[in-house]
Amino acid sequence: MDVIDLFKFFINSKSETPDDGGLLDFIEEYLEGFDAVRVDVGDVKNLFIYKKFSEGEHLCFAGHVDVVPAGSNWDTNPYVAVEKDGFIYGRGAQDMKSGLSAFTQAVKETKEFKGTLSLMLTSDEEGEAVNGTVKLLEFLENNDLLPDACVVAEPTCSNKFGDAIKVGRRGSINGYVTLKGKQGHAAYPEKAINPIHNISKVLGDMAGVDLDNGDEFFSPSKFVVTDIRSGMEVTNVTPNELKLMFNVRNNTKTTQKEVRMFVEEHFKGLDYELCLTQGSYPFKTDTDTKLVKHMDSAIESVTGIKPEHSTAGGTSDARFISPLGVAVVEFGVKNDSIHSVNERTTRVEVEDLCRVFKCLINNWE
Predict the structure, then answer these.
(1) Does residue 262 sit in the same domain as residue 288?
(2) Is 347 exposed, middle or buried (0-12, 13-18, 19+ CB in 10 A)?
(3) Is 125 in the active site?
(4) pLDDT tens digits for 144-177?
(5) Catalytic pick from 16, 20, 28, 66?
(6) For the chain, percent helix, then strand, then coil, each to nearest 5?
(7) Which of 16, 125, 241, 330 is catalytic?
(8) Catalytic annotation on 317?
(9) Residues 258 and 128 occupy one common structural domain
């Protein structure tokens, strides 16, 4: 198999979360001579597969074999790789069977390496992400197998392949506010406490407001209102309470403490309850690290482009890797059709992604 054959095989294997479509068993057999460890949890399949070529550092490639459901109205069968007009179509083409095939093939073709090469794979990235990479990392930490550096092959490029790598990610803080009032007749507003009226006095100073100024790597942490609901859908009764939900994609300058203070400042004097949860925390890999420099060099060598160092976008499993002291970056194909109907990428991008990973491996010292 070459990398395109492998890529098409992966697309043809239906692996909707948490089903791995048999891919982890295949990869275990495909990487002959590597030591494999399975850390399956319930329906979630996890594989750590590695080979110590010599003494030296441990370089890991991480990713997921699972995909989101295909949905309807595709022009082609989403679980049959179709190549036409320079594109290869199929669910997971960008997210992330392109990256999966590129690093699997790059590692398979490696004959010499100064250290240990490994793959860390899960079928639970697109789902709850509680029994996937987290469980693998627990195993690696407990068995002294954590890598020194890790590349997550999520799709990262914006306009042209090679134009961006992720050197960090923002966190995600979710907020739930219950603003209390006193239900009453709309004709007698003076006898009621209308939470809609109360929130209208402060919402304009909260919605869409930046909580910090960001920096050269992170955009500002913004207070984004995601849901407001109240009342009984009638015109003659004012509501007893109002529920508001918000999200803050936070950088390293803003924590739950600052978010709570922001809400308290604007809701001063009002009767309310606030609950904050955090699904992920912000992180950034130092751009002076060996990993970032070698990734920059490999990308520029293959594409002629010096990539931008970005932290934009949502979350990935890199958020679980960085807190353990592992240098981590993300790099993959263009991101312009992930999770959508007719997801696709190009043959050239998949081939060049494999070349980038080979270059990284061959020049790792």
Answers:
(1) no
(2) middle
(3) yes
(4) 999 999 999 999 999 999 999 999 999 999 999 9
(5) 66
(6) 25, 30, 45
(7) 125
(8) no
(9) no
